[in-house]
């Protein structure tokens, strides 16, 4: 009888996950089989489970296994995959972090080395889990790393909690600030203080930003933003008028505006004030507004007359993941970023994790090896 592993399967929005058992695959050449150590619940996972993001509009059909921010332990290694992306030898028992997106290797983007732009990048993690090899997502006991997915060994002295933040939160924050062309002395506004936004605050300070303004409606998360290096916070409950928020940003930047605004709130509505928070030549990078048909009103002159730009950012170059691991270790000494994991659950408690009010937590982690 073949070995089977459990998975928390997403079948219907806003309904309990179904615990199903699937045959554990034997890795093919170039693949690596992992046992999941820890998988975190991201904002995107919440949007998908709640139905706020309709997976059908993304071309996805249930059932699927959600979860992508994770670390795992090597169980079996397919032929030809004896090293990680940094050239370090892979062995059973090693802890690794994995770039959750794949690529085809033959499209126009892949031929130019821009694998993060591959139209098939998310084909694997959102595949129907009833079809072999089944283990496409991290909310399961096992995870199969495909041929083109980069994986990096986790340093022995790095905790599971810290390492689990590398993909996707830390890697996405790092790539976002690099795309925003952050420079020493810049002023940065971070719209949204989930784990991605909080890591962006800490990283922006580490990269030399002298003013970091965090915007959210949750006092719990705004308190975390201060701990993660934000020099100022704007409480959207106390200042709900976008014009007032823009005015505060102007005041805090000497009347100029921000050099970069990073949207990680997950809603398109904030983009209108995000643009107006920018100074001349400023750059707005939107990462969280992933919901199809989420429209927002834009005044084109706000871009043209002030030389502002807006950049949509999905995924990241896979090599960024290696730098994200190193950067997490540096940030931990100053900001204790591993404390962003505020809640822990077993695999059978994943529905409870999703139902927990998001304003009472930053990141929830799921440990498939634990009992409830």
Indicate the topology.
Blueprint: E1 4-9, E2 18-23, E3 32-41, H1 43-50, E4 69-77, E5 95-98, H2 108-111, E6 142-145, E7 151-153, H3 160-164, H4 166-179, E8 187-191, H5 195-206, E9 211-216, H6 219-227, E10 232-235, H7 242-252, E11 258-263, H8 271-276, E12 278-286, H9 301-304, E13 309-312, H10 320-335, E14 341-346, H11 350-355, E15 363-367
Parallel strand pairs: 8-9, 8-11, 9-10, 11-12, 12-13, 14-15
Antiparallel strand pairs: 1-2, 3-4, 3-6, 3-15, 4-5, 5-7
Helix pairs in contact: 4-5, 4-10
How does this model look, in words?
The chain is of the alpha/beta class and 372 residues long. It folds into two domains: 4-164 and 336-367, Alpha-Beta Complex (Quinone Oxidoreductase, Chain A, domain 1), CATH 3.90.180.10; 169-312, NAD(P)-binding Rossmann-like Domain (Rossmann fold, 3-Layer(aba) Sandwich). It is 26% helix and 23% strand. It is built from eleven helices and 15 strands. The protein has helices spanning 43-50, 108-111, 160-164, 166-179, 195-206, 219-227, 242-252, 271-276, 301-304, 320-335, 350-355, and strands at residues 4-9, 18-23, 32-41, 69-77, 95-98, 142-145, 151-153, 187-191, 211-216, 232-235, 258-263, 278-286, 309-312, 341-346, 363-367. The strands form three sheets. Strands 3, 4, 5, 6, 7, 14 and 15 form a seven-stranded mixed beta sheet that branches. The chain is globular and about 65 Å long.
């Amino acid at each position: 009888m073949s070995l089977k592993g459990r998975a928390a399967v997403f079948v219907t929005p806003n309904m309990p996950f179904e615990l199903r058992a699937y045959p554990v695959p034997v890795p093919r050449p170039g693949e690596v089989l992992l046992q999941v150590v820890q998988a975190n619940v991201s904002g995107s996972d919440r949007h998908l489970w709640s139905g706020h993001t309709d997976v059908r509009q993304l071309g996805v059909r249930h059932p699927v296994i959600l979860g992508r921010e994770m670390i795992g332990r090597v169980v079996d290694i397919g032929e030809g995959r004896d090293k990680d992306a940094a050239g370090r030898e892979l062995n059973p028992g090693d802890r690794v972090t994995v770039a959750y997106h794949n690529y085809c290797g033959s499209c126009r983007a892949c031929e130019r080395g821009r694998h993060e732009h591959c139209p098939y990048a998310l084909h694997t993690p959102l595949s129907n889990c009833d079809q072999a090899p089944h283990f496409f997502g991290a909310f399961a006991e096992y995870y199969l790393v495909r041929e083109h997915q980069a994986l990096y060994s986790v340093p022995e002295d790095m905790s599971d909690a810290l390492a689990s933040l590398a993909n996707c939160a830390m890697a996405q924050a790092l790539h976002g600030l690099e795309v925003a062309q952050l420079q020493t002395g810049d002023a940065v506004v971070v719209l949204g203080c989930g784990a991605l936004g909080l890591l962006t605050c800490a990283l922006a300070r580490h990269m030399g930003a002298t003013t970091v303004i965090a915007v959210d409606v949750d006092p719990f998360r705004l308190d975390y933003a201060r701990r993660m290096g934000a020099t100022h916070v704007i409480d959207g409950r106390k200042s709900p008028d976008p014009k007032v928020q823009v005015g505060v940003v102007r005041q805090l930047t000497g009347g100029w505006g921000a050099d970069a605004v990073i949207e990680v709130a997950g809603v398109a509505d904030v983009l209108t004030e995000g643009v107006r928070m920018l100074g001349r030549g400023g750059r707005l990078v939107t990462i969280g507004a992933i919901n199809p048909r989420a429209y927002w009103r834009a005044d084109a002159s706000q871009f043209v007359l002030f030389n502002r730009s807006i950049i949509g950012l999905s995924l990241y170059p896979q090599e960024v993941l290696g730098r994200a691991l190193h950067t997490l270790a540096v940030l931990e000494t100053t900001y204790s970023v591993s404390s962003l994991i505020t809640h822990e659950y077993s695999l059978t408690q994943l529905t409870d994790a999703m139902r927990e009010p998001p304003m009472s937590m930053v990141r929830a982690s799921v440990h498939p090896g634990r009992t409830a």
